[in-house]
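Example 9 (inverse folding). The structure is encoded as follows.
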């Protein structure tokens, strides 16, 4: 606060106290049977003069001393700095009051009158004023902190909503239609926005890709990363026929545009014109393949490292896709780690074992991919109970028809 604003505030506060004091005296006199009106012209004029004599030296001394301390740049804790400020203002109040008292005596009576009793009275009065101001300041400071916290909470809520809208806008508006396959995908956002994403791609040779990805990090940064990833993936896929080139191109572009601490895991299943399936895994979770004939689940986990961790040449050499065929009524599940790492109220993870069991049950009973997906998520919800999820859950079910 500037000096002139501080002077006006101090003078106005003192004037308000004078008015309240006068009203109190007038009310007391009225209740006691008297009729004395405190606000006489003489009393008001004397009060205005006295207030000025006291406010200006005290404010100037306090402002100057605290400004000097701030210019020195002392490294103090918040409590120590507050105590120093109180001490400086207390000292300024005592010295300023003595100066004001002597000036008033000099103006009104033409003499000085310093005494030890005057010093004691001045010190006591200023201690009471400092205590009063500290209490009032603490109340207003608490209210100000409350308003700031409310504002910060609103900003965080707005940020969460913006990240949520951004995340949802990346997802397919509807499931892809591939002859001979029934496909259903979903992404459930957690309490904390994450970097999950799934999509359906078309490659230059006409083959289709079903992709699930998970970016490192949380919140708006992760959502922004996935926004970039989606644009790059869709733009690149229509220009390449070989998924290996697709992954290498994504990797090299990500390394140029993103920080070295950022990486993205990707699991992608492609389906060609002859209905052969291939699973590509870049550091992502396994693919679960339920075989309708045997009732068994095959876990497909080919080699591959996450995007953004190394250069494209090395990434391309580590990718070892797994080719397989799906028999009639076979079911494939692609998912993000939010599904297996979901915890219940006891802190126990859902885990891959439970997921396989629930997939077996759902695939045996489900008529289509949507029902299977809903059943798996329903079993997960029952397991989690009232516990909050802190990672997104993405699931894509593919059923051979």
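The amino acid assigned to each position is listed next.
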């Amino acid at each position: 606060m500037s000096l002139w604003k501080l002077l006006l505030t101090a003078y106005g506060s003192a004037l308000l106290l004078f008015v309240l004091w006068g009203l109190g005296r007038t009310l007391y006199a009225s209740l006691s049977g008297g009729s004395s009106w405190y606000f006489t012209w003489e009393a008001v004029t004397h009060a205005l003069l006295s207030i000025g004599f006291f406010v200006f030296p005290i404010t100037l001394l306090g402002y100057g001393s605290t400004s000097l301390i701030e210019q020195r740049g002392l490294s103090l804790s918040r409590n120590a700095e507050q105590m120093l400020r109180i001490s400086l203002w207390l000292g300024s109040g005592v010295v300023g009051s003595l100066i004001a008292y002597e000036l008033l005596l000099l103006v009104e009576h033409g003499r000085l009158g310093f005494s030890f009793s005057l010093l004691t009275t001045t010190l006591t009065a200023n201690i009471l004023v400092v205590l009063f101001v500290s209490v009032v300041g603490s109340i207003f400071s608490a209210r100000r902190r409350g308003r700031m916290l409310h504002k910060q909470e609103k900003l965080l809520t707005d940020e969460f909503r913006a990240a949520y809208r951004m995340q949802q806008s990346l997802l397919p508006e509807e499931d892809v239609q591939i002859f001979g396959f029934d496909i259903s995908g979903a992404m459930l956002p957690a309490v904390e926005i994450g970097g999950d994403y799934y999509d359906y791609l078309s490659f230059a040779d006409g083959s289709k890709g079903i992709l699930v990805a998970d970016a490192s990090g949380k919140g708006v940064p992760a959502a922004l990363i996935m926004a970039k990833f989606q644009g790059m993936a869709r733009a690149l896929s229509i220009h390449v026929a070989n998924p290996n080139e697709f992954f290498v191109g994504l990797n090299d572009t990500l390394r140029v545009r993103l920080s070295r601490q950022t990486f993205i895991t990707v699991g992608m299943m492609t389906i060609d014109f002859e209905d052969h399936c291939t699973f590509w895994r870049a550091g992502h979770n396994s693919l679960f393949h339920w075989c309708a004939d045997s009732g068994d689940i095959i876990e497909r986990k080919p080699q591959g490292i996450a995007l953004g961790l190394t250069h494209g040449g090395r990434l391309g050499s580590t990718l070892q896709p797994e080719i397989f065929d799906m028999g009639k009524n076979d079911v494939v599940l692609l998912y993000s780690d939010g599904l297996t790492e979901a915890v219940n109220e006891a802190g126990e993870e859902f885990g891959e074992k439970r997921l396989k069991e629930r997939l077996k049950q759902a695939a045996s009973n489900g008529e289509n991919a949507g029902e299977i997906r809903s059943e798996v998520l329903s079993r997960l919800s029952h397991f989690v109970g009232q516990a909050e999820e802190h990672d997104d859950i993405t699931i894509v079910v593919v059923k051979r028809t």
